[in-house]
Amino acid sequence: MRGKERFERTQMTWSNRHRLSGPHLSPITHHPSRHILRSERGFTFIEIMVVVAILAILAALVVPRIMGRTDDAKRTATKVQIRNIEGALQLYKLDNGVYPSTEQGLKALVEKPSVGVIPKKWKLGGYLPKLPEDSWQNPYKYLSPSPKGDYEITSLATDGEVGGEGINADITNWNLDKD
């Protein structure tokens, strides 16, 4: 079959097929599935408002539970940091035979002390990469020797003042397991 004959035969088949399906359907502007698309164009305003209301109810239930946990998370992070500082203090004592004095402070874990007993085997690079702050961006208080042991590391917690109860209670290395 030659090209012109094939074209004419295809045209005739196509027109016969569409002529039989009805006069209201034009191959260019109408398509049988077009009526389905018109009814499913999008969501109604009511449907959107129902979804927004459901999301608002869920947020009202979930957000207070999450928001109340920030103080707990900060306290936990501070306790973990104090344990890390304790580990660095243990390494300092292994190398130098003593803990840093109160005068030398926790800075002795980052830089070689220049006051008090100068350590002879201070580890090059230090025992901590930088001087840590608690979760409220306050410096830790360090006391050595302490009435409760070789040293005491304290975070003044949320209020930044000595003492306190609940979320304002100070966090020290000797009360890490409380709460």
What would the keywords be for this entry?
single chain, 179 residues, mainly alpha, three-stranded antiparallel β-sheet, 3 strands, 41% helix
Characterization of the model:
The protein is mainly α and 179 residues long. The protein is built from four helices and three strands; from the N terminus they run ααααβββ. The protein has helices at 3-20, 34-39, 45-67, 70-96, and strands at 141-143, 152-155, 171-172. Strands 1-2-3 form a three-stranded antiparallel β-sheet, covered by helices on one side. Strand 1 (141-143) and strand 2 (152-155) form a beta hairpin. The longest helix is centred in the middle third of the chain and has 27 residues, at 70-96. It is elongated and about 100 Å long. It starts with a helix and ends in a 7-residue tail after the last strand. The mean pLDDT is 81.
